[in-house]
Structure formats: structure tokens, C-alpha cells
Design goal:
Elements lengths: L1 H4 L5 H26 L7 E5 L5 H6 L8 E6 L2 H10 L4 E4 L12 E7 L8 H10 L1 E12 L6 H14 L1 H8 L7 H6 L6 E9 L2 E4 L2 H10 L9 H14 L10 E4 L2 E8 L1
Parallel strand pairs: 1-2, 1-4, 2-3, 4-5
Antiparallel strand pairs: 5-9, 6-9, 7-8
Length: 266
Amino acid sequence: MEQQVKGQVSSDAAEVYEEFFLPALFQPWAERMTEAARITPGDRVLDVACGTGVVARFVVDRVQPGGAVVGLDVNEGMLAVARRKAPGVEWIESAAEALPFGDAAFDAVVSQFGIMFFDDRRQAIREMVRVLQPGGRLAVAAWDSLDRTPGYAAMVTLLQRLFGDEAAESLRAPFSLGDPDAFLALFADSDLADLRVTTHNGTARFPSIASWVYTDIKGWTAADLIDDDGFERLVTAAEEELQRFVTPDGTVVFDIPAHIVTATKL
């Protein structure tokens, strides 16, 4: 269970994550994170829990001339994909709770949908603030609650019924910081000003139910929990039970809101 709730995936799952999760969920948020952190040319930017690097890759051209981007993740499988996609970004394997940088090393620190999986969320926030220079900007995103994300609420229910607690928990974990007040409270004792949380609407889009199931299982931590026979059972059940999320052209669309905490270092 530990690997599942920490969001750790295999190398094969990282490839699926890159190919399918990014266009379905993550790419639209990269621009929002860039705007939230007020990133401009010349900035030195750290992307914490970067995954395959969707935000870092979006930002790298926007900090030129004179800027630089570092992507950091604890998952080597994710970083292997990131290095192949963007060799011009510096990619570092490390935990968020012990960032391998000196104080005041960055103008902006961003972390998109990673904080839910940190071993010690408050320590990771302290580290992100530590490596910001005075006046530096912080932007951290977490998904809204599962009950406000109808597609994934239904998928979790299906996983629970077919495979039990462990498989269901693997998909509940990303939504564990859905309460915006509790999310914001994690930052309360940090050296930050202008601290606020905003909730943004988002949309998940998959080409089909089969693609949705493939992405969620083969591109995430449940890849190690559900075998091929179980996967086929899940696709069949999803085709029957999740039709309410299918549009007339056959694509899957549902709301997936998220919270972004922003602040400035004192």
C-alpha cells in the first residue's frame, strides 16, 4: 500500500503517464501554475515533484533569456522520461523534504499535484520556502475533493467493488487534500506573505472509456495491483457503468477542479 499512496510508479507506468495522463489531465494546468508563480524571463525556477516534467518543460522557454529551470522528483522512472523529453532542463532525483540546494537559490518554486504524496508535507513546504530568495514566489497545486470530481469518484467506487481497498486507495490518494482550508493551513507557519488558496475549474478528457481505464491503471500505481484479467474485467464494467461521462462523440469528459496555494517569501 505504501507505494500506491505515495504515487510511486514503475518505469513502464511513467511512459503511459507521459503519453496519456499529460494530455488528459495535466498539460492545461502548466500555464496556470506559471501564471500563479508569476514566472518571467530571467527567473531561476524549481519544479518540485515534477513527474515527467510537464510544468518544467512549459516554463523553460518562458524564463529566457537568462533564466534556468530545475525539475526534481523522487521517482527515477518519471525522470527518465523527463530527461529524454527535455535535455535542456536540469533533472534531479531527490525527495521534496530535503532539497539539495542552498538557501535563496530560486526566484520561483512550483509544485503541481505532488504534495499529496509527500512523506512530510510541512517539511517539504519549509524546504520549498527555504530555497526561495526573499520576494520569491511559491505556487503549489492539489486536486479538489473526490466528491467534487464525479468521474474519479465513480471510478474509485468501481475499483472498490471489483478489487477492494488497496486498488481503490491508489486512486483516492490524489484527492486527499481536497479541503482548501486544510490545504492552506499546511503553509501557515512558513515565512510567507500574501498567502492564499484559489480553486480553479478543470476538465478531464479521454478519447474513450477504454482509454480512461488504461490511463488510470497502466499509468498509475494500480498497474502493479491489477493483472491483465482484472484489467479486462474493469474495462467491461466501466463500459457498462460509466456511460454518463461519455459525450455524443464517444469521448469522456468530466470536471476535475483543483486548488492552488500561492505566496511570496518574506
